[in-house]
Amino acid sequence: MFSNHIFKEPLLLASTSPRRAEILSSAGWPFEIVKGSVDESLREGEAADAYVRRLARDKAMNAAANLRAGLILAADTTVVIDDEILGQPEDDDDARRMLTMLSGKTHEVLTGVALVRAENPSTLIVDHETTRVRFSSMSQDEIDWYVATGEPRGKAGAYAIQGRAALFIDGVEGDYFNIVGLPIRLVYKLAREIRKQ
Predict the structure, then answer these.
(1) What are the C-alpha distances in Å from 83 to residues 44, 56, 178, 185?
(2) Which is catalytic among the residues 76, 91, 127, 144?
(3) Is 93 one of the catalytic residues?
């Protein structure tokens, strides 16, 4: 039987992201990984905040449909610059395109977060976090070097702030963990809210 006066109960993480798992582990929040995949296609005219909230909600509900009980956490992160949503790069050329867009500019990172009790889908609660990130100007050589490291693969906006991309970050406004992939403070806040339902 789990007992912890802060977290109350473990989470069922509907994500295969190692970054999200690392953040939960670092915070000391016990969790298990469960399946919660969905079609991540962007809908026509869909705003970034609505997009990440929808995907987080759909991942949570997909996982809930396959479980009898437990508190499910799902999340989705994207990068937005000049009204363009940057997901994960399709290939190295796409990563170079994204990094060129980010170079010398400020962009936003949005993460949608959803929590739901598998035994009671009406408990679903969804929110999102926004953080602003300022990139320094990157030369073409720097972009080519960074892409060659392989780090941009599988990362929204083609970079990992907790990795080699830290060399090119001029500033952050807001929740750093949101950029990594999970705004842990927001998760904690929502978990406390869902317990009151």
Answers:
(1) 13, 21, 19, 26
(2) 76
(3) no
